[in-house]
Amino acid sequence: MSGDTPDTSNDSWEETRRAWFQEMTKLGIERFDQAHEHLMDLILDVNRTLATFSLEQAEDEGWLALLSLAKQLEIYGRGLFASEEESMREENYPDLHRHKRAHLQLVGELTRFRQRAAEADLAYCRSSAPALKIDLFDHIQQLDVAYVPFFRRRQRPHLGPYA
Ligand SMILES: [Fe+2]
Ligand SMILES: [Fe+2]
């Protein structure tokens, strides 16, 4: 691993992406796994952009790129969480309320990040970017996995999309 100076070569980020992808819990529900992967990629791009900042002292172009990523992250995250909640509601998933509260926390985190990126708050963005990945991965591993067997149990008789 690199020390204080981030290694921003493409190879290094490809390696990071492979490691993140391996680490991320897969649900076996294709549309959610693909959506999680897309969120992971956006968060990786946020981190990659910020790593460039530390070398180039945060030029305007960099902030525009970061803000664009932060907006995409918030919009995509909100959409994914709403979609998960809709599926859970349809299946009368018993732990929906707790799961929704956790989604609200994540949305708050994404919104704060987008707002701070808009204010060009580099210290905040740099210190909180690693948590975006950690909190998403923890959420998938601790909460999303809990609905998988439930969805599968409900869907199997119909040979639905999750069977
Ligand atoms: Fe999820
Ligand atoms: Fe979730």
A few lines on this structure:
This protein is mainly α and 163 residues long. The chain contains 5 helices and no strands.
CATH fold-level label:
Four Helix Bundle (Hemerythrin (Met), subunit A)
Number of beta strands? 0
Large-scale geometry: globular
Protein structure class: mainly alpha
Lay out the secondary structure.
Blueprint: H1 10-23, H2 30-56, H3 60-90, H4 96-118, H5 122-155
Helix pairs in contact: 1-2, 2-3, 2-5, 3-4, 4-5
The chain binds fe (ii) ion (FE2) (2 copies).
Structure description:
The protein is an all-alpha fold and 163 residues long. It has a single domain, classed as Up-down Bundle (Four Helix Bundle (Hemerythrin (Met), subunit A)). Helices cover 79% and strands 0% of the residues. It has five helices and no strands. α1 runs antiparallel to α2. The longest helix is centred in the C-terminal third of the chain and has 34 residues. The N and C termini lie far apart (41 Å). The structure holds fe (ii) ion (2 copies). The site of one fe (ii) ion has 5 residues, from α2 and α5.
Structural descriptors:
binds fe (ii) ion; mainly alpha; Four Helix Bundle (Hemerythrin (Met), subunit A); 5 helices; globular; disordered C terminus; 163 residues; disordered N terminus; 0% strand
